[in-house]
Amino acid sequence: MQNRTVLVVDDDDDLRSLMVEMLRAEGYDVVSASDGSSALDRLAEHPQAAVIVLDLTMPGMDGYEFLRRKRADPKIASIPVVVVTAVTEKPQFVDDVFAFLKKPVEGGVLLAVVDTASSGGMGPRPRG
């Protein structure tokens, strides 16, 4: 059976809650974190997450540092990451993310990308 666990990482409480509710309504098991450090703690508890939905700009440990640490940990390095951020241009050093979506992201687009990433599909890699 397909892994349906998603980790949502965003410092905006309202947006994070909205994404969590939307994913749960679609049958995903969702855990969340408000920064990169908390996200690493959650992954220590749930290393089987199928997908990580990640903001890049957060106080404390931002998404860039989170990605660096994730890449260095063989237990979680292969989990696909869907970046959802207000950053207007995709930084070169996040080329290994599954998808790069700009805020505000349409719910249907996010769900489609998470569905594809969680099923191991390569599909198109949305950029916007």
Q: Roughly what fraction of the amino acids lie in strands?
A: 15-25%
- First and last CA, distance: 30 Å
The beta-strand count equals 5
Low-confidence region ranges: 123-128
Q: Write out the CATH superfamily name.
A: Response regulator
CATH class division? Alpha Beta
Let me know the average pLDDT. Answer: 87
Question: How helix-rich are the residues, as a percent range?
Answer: 25-40%
Q: Give the strand line-up of the largest sheet.
A: 2-1-3-4-5
> How does the major sheet shape up?
5 strands, parallel
CATH structural fold name:
Rossmann fold
Known CATH architecture: 3-Layer(aba) Sandwich
Rg, nearest Å: 13 Å
Element-by-element helix/strand order: EHEHEHEEH
Structural class: alpha/beta
Number of domains: 1
Number of helices: 4
Overall body shape: globular
What would you note in describing this structure?
The chain is α/β, with parallel strands linked by helices and 128 residues long. It has one domain (5-118): Response regulator (Rossmann fold). 35% of the residues lie in helices and 18% in strands. The chain has helices at residues 13-25, 36-45, 63-72, 107-118, and strands at residues 5-9, 29-33, 51-54, 81-85, 99-102. Strands 2-1-3-4-5 form a five-stranded parallel beta sheet, with helices on both faces. Helix 2 runs parallel beside helix 3. The longest helix has 13 residues, at 13-25. The N and C termini lie far apart (30 Å).
